[in-house]
Design brief:
The complex is a heterotrimer of chains A (273), B (148) and C (132). Chain A contains nine helices and nine strands. Chain A has 273 residues and is α+β, with helices and mostly antiparallel strands. In chain A, strand 6 (107-109) and strand 7 form a beta hairpin. In chain A, helix 3 (116-124) packs parallel to helix 6 (183-194), helix 4 runs antiparallel to helix 6 (183-194) and helix 6 (183-194) crosses helix 9. Chain B has 148 residues and is an all-alpha fold. Chain B is 66% helix and 0% strand. Chain B is elongated. The N and C termini of chain B lie far apart (70 Å). Chain C has 132 residues and is an all-alpha fold. Chain C is built from five helices and no strands. The radius of gyration of chain C is 21 Å and the shape is elongated. The N and C termini of chain C lie far apart (71 Å). Classes of the chains: A alpha+beta (273), B mainly alpha (148), C mainly alpha (132). At the A-B interface, helix 4, helix 8 and helix 9 of A face helix 1, helix 2 and helix 4 of B. The structure holds iron/sulfur cluster (SF4) and FE2/S2 (inorganic) cluster.
């Protein structure tokens, strides 16, 4: 399909090769080619939306924020997992751009993939603060704030910037063959809660100490290479493993709780995240 | 519409992802080489245990087996083994330190352009040193075996 | 998209395996055998390099080696260390390749028996050559 909607002689054009497949209809897969005008600032997502608006509205993509915050527009761009909204056409310096669905995620349609397995791995890491003190949940006794120093926050802050875009999961070679391996995202989140002084769970290391667990990471580093938010999941995984090997000692002091008066608490500063 | 299965292996990168180290930098190359050399060395090791077992059948058996291996190709194979074991050892030591969280830097506050702390030059030079050591060992092995 | 199938998917992910050794213990063994193997293999090679390469392969020379108790100990430890390290490495690769209970049990059985088999075979050589 070669199409040009705007006939402007001076405009630069890029060839967009888009993967097409509808798993619901079993009709096989193919690539469609589009010629799209672009400017210095045009992102791959912009180009795909141009295709949808003026050339072929049936191209399926998933996106929301267009500013690398929601993590929904991940796709393989020229073979490497990237966020489409965070990748400018001009910086790729190629005359053809190939857009394919993220590998390691089952394809639903075209560039849209199924994240269920990815999210289930995330959930199995128990990604929430766990404390031993059950009175905290009881708001009739007033609410608590946790006290954390900036140093405490720095230990996990980086990992909490994860937007669940799945790029690391797509780049990881182990995930590419092992369905039961939690993947870089989930393991880095395990470290994120392990390092958080508010969390008192004793089970965190056991959850990942499985034959398909953290030990199936071989530090190929591809996750950190593709992460668009600087989460550096490979670092989190190795730091977690250093506790399991006994190199780092877990001397975490649980965060102090400061009682907040129930009434004039506006809840804003309660969470450090 | 057919129901979309979730536990499928659909669109998994598969073993092709292991075998193509070209897209993600040096750490991925190290992963690839570590795996290939590991498998290769185990195969050699099994062969070596079998090869040396001919000694129990007396001098003739031993010498006839030696003839099979002491050829130009046998020596070239041995040089490969020398290189593979040197790389696997040196890079393996680096990886053990890495798995123990040593030499990776510390978490901080990420900022554009978000260069990850773990993919630092200490790690990369570890890989390069392993490669250089392997090359040097192969060179040495070449000199011993071919007596240049 | 519906909750049921998500839950099913979660079931298949949480296939927690009951094992004798924890994976972290296995991996500690993997690291220790790896490092130890480097040292004994280095000794093995060095003992070969003290004489010219051709001489190191002569029948009498090797039989004499097999009667040297230190050399025998080095050979036996190389045999054990590399077998454990190597076959555990193969186990790791095979576990990552496919996932099902049958496959994983098969991988465990096959790699452990191959490991024991190779150690037994190599030890046989050492014992018989020692008696020659
Ligand atoms: S760790 Fe990075 S690449 Fe992985 S899901 Fe989170 S933001 Fe995306
Ligand atoms: S659209 Fe939200 S991350 Fe790209």
């Amino acid at each position: 399909m070669n199409n040009t909607a705007i006939d402007n002689k001076n405009e630069q054009k890029i060839t967009l090769k888009v993967y097409r497949e509808n798993r619901g209809q079993d009709s096989g897969s193919h690539h469609d080619t589009f010629e799209v005008p672009y400017k210095k600032w045009t992102t791959v997502l912009d180009a795909l939306l141009y295709v949808k608006s003026y050339m072929d509205p049936s191209v399926a993509i998933r996106y929301s924020c267009r500013m690398a915050s929601c993590g929904s527009c991940g796709m393989k761009i020229n073979g490497v997992p990237k966020l489409a909204c965070y990748t400018k056409i001009s910086e790729l310096e190629k005359s053809t751009i190939e857009c394919e669905p993220l590998s390691n995620f089952p394809i639903i349609r075209d560039l849209v993939t199924d994240f269920s397995r990815f999210f289930n791995h995330h959930k199995s890491m128990q990604p929430y603060i766990q404390t031993n003190d059950s009175t905290e949940a009881d708001t009739s006794k007033g609410t608590f704030s946790f006290y954390q120093s900036p140093e405490d926050v720095d230990k996990y802050l980086q990992f909490s910037y994860c937007i669940n875009c799945g790029l690391c999961y797509s780049a990881c070679p182990t995930v590419g063959t092992d369905l039961n391996f939690p993947g870089p995202q989930a393991l880095a989140q395990q470290y994120r809660y392990f390092a958080d002084t508010r969390d008192e769970s004793k089970k965190r290391l056991d959850i990942v100490d499985d034959r398909h667990g953290i030990w199936r990471c071989h530090f190929a580093g591809s996750c950190s290479k593709v992460c668009p938010k600087g989460v550096d999941p490979a670092l989190g995984i190795q730091l977690l493993r250093s506790y399991m090997l006994g190199i780092s000692k877990n001397d975490k002091v649980p965060a102090k709780k400061i009682e907040v008066n129930g009434n004039n608490n506006n809840n804003n500063g309660a969470d450090t995240e | 519409m057919k129901e979309i299965e979730r536990s499928t292996r659909n669109n998994l990168e598969g073993i092709g992802g292991w075998l193509n180290p070209s897209r993600y930098g040096w750490e991925r190359i190290s992963y690839w080489l570590q795996r290939l050399t590991g498998v290769f060395l185990l195969i050699y090791f099994i062969g070596h245990v079998y090869e040396t077992s001919t000694i129990v059948n007396g001098q003739n058996a031993w010498e006839s087996f030696l003839e099979l291996t002491q050829t130009v190709w046998g020596h070239l194979f041995l040089i490969m083994v020398i290189g593979a074991s040197t790389f696997h050892s040196a890079n393996g030591i680096r990886l053990i330190f890495t798995h123990a969280g040593i030499g990776l830097g510390t978490p901080g506050r990420p900022d554009y352009p978000y260069n990850p702390a773990s993919l630092n030059y200490r790690q990369k030079s570890g890989i390069w040193i392993a490669l250089i050591l392997a090359a040097a060992a192969m060179f040495y092995g070449f000199n011993v075996l071919f007596g240049v | 998209m519906d909750l049921m199938s998500c839950l099913e998917c979660n079931e298949s992910i949480k296939m927690v395996s009951r094992t004798i050794l924890k994976e972290s213990q296995i991996m500690k063994i993997h690291y220790i055998t790896g490092i130890a193997a480097i040292f004994v293999v280095a000794l093995h090679i060095m003992m070969r390099l003290v004489v010219p390469f051709e001489q190191s392969l002569e029948y009498e020379y090797i039989i004499a080696n097999y009667k040297n108790i230190i050399y025998v100990l080095i050979l036996e430890s190389i045999l054990v260390l590399i077998s454990v390290h190597g076959f555990n490495g193969i186990r790791i690769i095979l576990l990552e390749l496919r996932q099902s209970r049958a496959w994983e049990n098969m991988v465990t059985v096959v790699t452990i028996s191959a490991m024991i088999g190779l150690i037994a075979y190599g030890t046989r050589t050492i014992i018989l050559a020692n008696g020659l």
